[in-house]
Design goal:
By secondary structure, the protein is an alpha/beta fold. The chain has 12 helices and 10 strands. The chain has one domain: NADP-dependent oxidoreductase domain (TIM Barrel, Alpha-Beta Barrel), CATH 3.20.20.100. Helix content is 41%, strand content 13%. The strands form 2 sheets. It has an 8-stranded parallel β-sheet, with helices on one face. A two-stranded antiparallel ribbon has the order 1-2. The relative contact order is 0.13. The model has no long low-confidence stretch (mean pLDDT 94).
Length: 323
């Protein structure tokens, strides 16, 4: 495993971030394909043994079950100071007018609840899961700054928003002397490269680490286009992200390069993401040993310039999707 700094911070993270949305008691949330605790723990332990030190979850994943499983596994399989633990806030966790969003009340309440479920007294990276149009961004930024100053959060991150929104947040934090976001968790893969237009140049200019979600496009880059999986058949959100007419040629190109290399398609798709200078670590979700093996192997797979060009050539502009 390789390690790198998260953006311009001094924080060292593994080049693969393990996404924890795949781990959570299925009956606890809207993800019937997620793994129960026993199966989750085995894969988390294997990830740690492979050198992965970066773990990303969220309060909403399986209604808190993901955080609980993550916290217990990290406590049992590694030392807290040896890992970088990230979670997120924004989505609805309880009924009522303050049960979601990014108000000061919601953020500070949800942080305490995440710490309780994770079984830790601090989070390394606390991220806003989406932009909250109902809350002034100044209120959100000030609340996040107070969380850092309290010692309960080490670094701040954001996810899935327009570049102008992120730029505004970075500017306001600097203007007020608040802690700034150091990372952007965005939707980025060979099937949707729209973040290359504005978000990634902004992140490169501002020293922001990019940790893309869905780097394998919900698995579409890893299998034949018409092949279905248990998750793809139940993932309504994933079905809204990709379009057959525009995407099939890219999927087929990944298959061609992988066949020539003699490696699984997942390794090629991840190696492409890892080769982008602005990317710190793609967030990879796993439900099988092979998924984890491919993610780790992709770190060492170096694509040629010609292969990169072939993979990118069929791409056509898309609508921004994911937020």
């Amino acid at each position: 495993m390789e390690y790198t700094r998260l953006g311009s911070t001094g924080l060292q993270v593994s080049r693969i971030c393990l996404g924890m949305m795949s781990f959570g008691e299925p009956e606890r949330g809207p993800s019937p394909w997620s793994l129960p605790e026993e199966d989750s723990r085995r894969l988390i332990e294997k990830a740690i043994a492979a050198g992965i030190t970066f773990f990303d979850t969220a309060n909403v994943y399986s209604a808190g079950s993901s955080e609980e499983i993550t916290g217990r596994a990290l406590r049992d399989f590694t030392d807290r100071e040896d890992v970088v633990l990230a979670t997120k806030v924004h989505g609805r966790m309880r009924p009522g007018p303050n049960g979601s969003g990014l108000s000061r009340k919601a953020i500070l309440r949800e942080l305490e609840e995440s710490l309780r479920r994770l079984g830790t007294d601090y989070v390394d990276l606390y991220q806003i899961h989406r932009w909250d149009p109902e809350t002034p961004i100044e209120e959100t930024l000030e609340a996040l700054d107070s969380a850092v100053r309290s010692g309960k959060v080490r670094y701040l991150g954001a996810s899935s928003m327009w570049a102008w929104q992120f730029s505004k947040a970075l500017h306001l934090a600097g203007e007020h002397g608040w802690h700034r976001f150091v990372s952007m968790q965005d939707h980025y893969n060979l099937l949707n490269r729209e973040e290359e237009r504005e978000m990634h140049p902004l992140c490169a200019d501002q020293g922001i680490g990019v940790i893309p979600w869905s780097p394998l496009a919900r698995g579409r880059l890893t299998r034949d286009w018409d092949e279905a999986t248990n998750r793809s058949e139940q993932d309504d959100f994933g079905r809204r992200l990709y379009d057959e007419a525009a995407d099939r040629a890219v999927v087929e190109r990944v298959a061609e390069v992988a066949a020539e290399r003699g490696v699984p398609r997942a390794q090629v798709a991840l190696a492409w993401v890892l080769a982008k200078p602005v990317v710190t670590a793609p967030i990879v979700g796993v439900t099988k040993d092979a998924h984890l093996d491919d993610a780790v192997a992709a770190v060492d797979l170096q694509l040629t310039d010609e292969e990169v060009a072939r993979l990118e050539e069929p791409y056509t502009p898309h609508a921004v999707a994911g937020f």
